[in-house]
Amino acid sequence: MGRAVRLAALVAFGLALVAAAGSRGESAAPRPAAPRFDPSGASEVPTAVARVGPAVVGLRARIPPDRPSAATLGVERWGSGILVDPDGTAVTVGYVVLEATALEAVLRDGRTVPARVLGHDFESGLALLRLAGGGAYPAATVGRSGPVAPGQPASIVGMTEDGRLTAVPASVTAIRRFVAYWEYLLERALIVAPSHPAFGGAALVDSDGALIGVVSLRLDREHLAIPIDLLPPVRDAVVTRGRPDRPPRSWLGVRAVAVEGGVGIAGVSPAGPAHAAGLRHGDIVVRFNGDRVADVEDFYRKLWRVGVGGAIELTVLRDGRLETITVKTRDRHAVFQFRSPE
Questions:
Q1: What pTM was estimated for this model as a whole?
Q2: Dihedral, 59, 45, 52, 11 alpha carbons, nearest 10
Q3: H or E element in which residue 104 lies
Q4: Could you tell me the CA-to-CA distances from 250 to 273, 276, 310 in Å, in that order?
Q5: For the structural domain made of 3-241, what CATH number should be given?
């Protein structure tokens, strides 16, 4: 099984948990494969694809097996990135490069260039990296996702693991809040269809070829794309010091799903404070500091109001009995290696 396939399988498993938490999904037969365009070829290639194509690169990341993310995301990963500056700065979805100590970018002409991770914004799910070489790279036009509306045409452009640039004509099917099991919430996520074979870190562009989002996850026959408007407010800070300037969200290291009566713990990170405090798979959180927990979103919002380093009391149902577990929250940046060494 290839690295990209393993990563896709992991994401699919996670999204099955999200579905259990109440996220929307459909079950249907697979659609026929969408047409693929080579932006270096025929004249009928859409202008949008031709404009962004030179700025899309493949990313091959290697992660030490002892790092916290290796157990769930693997030690070898593949994805796409989009150059957003001629100096070689590129944006991708964070899970592709999280804790990468060896990273290379595959260019359109087949050459490989060393790269390093500049930093992460765990709240949006975006990461920035920089290719070696000192500049003169083709850069995408960064557009705006704020004006995007359901029904708007778009294109998804990414690079497959065998080095082919692949484009899929698409459309924005919905814009909605997205809550995921790994302590993640987007207030305004772009939902796009149809699916793309190389979705992780692929560019979502409008009809003019401007970057409006970074494709992150597969949702049945659709994809979640992170709005590009989340990048400019944090870009300078991530480039210079590896993380946004705003206070970080407090983190427990749990995989949370909605169940009857509370929030189910589908797993815990061995590197997280929840594991250290004794929270475990199968627990159901029914109260947070004495307050009832309505659903996963309510659980997250209560958690993030506490702040990093705060102690919380979780009342959990375990083996038919109620128990109280005290957990001291942490900053995720302090746990994961989020920036490559100079």
A1: 0.86
A2: -40
A3: strand 102-106
A4: 11, 15, 8
A5: 2.40.10.120
| Backbone torsions φ then ψ of 275, nearest 5 degrees | -65, -45
Pick the CATH number of 250-334 from 3.40.980.10, 3.90.550.10, 3.40.50.2300, 2.30.42.10: 2.30.42.10
In whole angstroms, what is the distance from residue 94 CA to residue 184 CA? 12
Task: For residue 233, give the DSSP letter.
Answer: H
Helix (H) or strand (E) holding 178: strand 165-180
Residue 35 token pair = 């047409």
- Virtual CA dihedral for 190, 194, 196, 201, nearest 10 degrees? 0
Residue 139 CB neighbour total at 10 angstroms: 19
What confidence score (pLDDT) does residue 74 get?
A: 95
Dist CA 154 CA 147 (whole Å): 13
CA angle at residue 164 from 206 to 204, to 5 degrees?
Answer: 15
Other C-beta atoms closer than 10 Å to the C-beta of 250 total 23
* Domain-wise residue ranges, the chain: 3-241, 250-334
- What is the share, in percent, of the chain residues with pLDDT greater than 70? 87
Residue 321 has pLDDT above 60, yes or no: yes
Can you tell me which residue has the tokens 């269809």? 193
Q: How far is CA 141 from the centre of its chain?
A: 21
Q: Which residues pair with 58 in a beta bridge?
A: 80, 106
Structure tokens at 254: 């749990």
267-291, pLDDT tens digit by residue? 999 999 999 999 999 999 999 999 9
Q: What share of the chain is helix, strand, coil (3-state, %, to 5)?
A: 20, 40, 40
Picking from 342, 336, 296, 341, the residue whose alpha carbon sits closest to that of residue 95 is 336
As a whole number of angstroms, the distance between CA 29 and CA 112 comes to 38
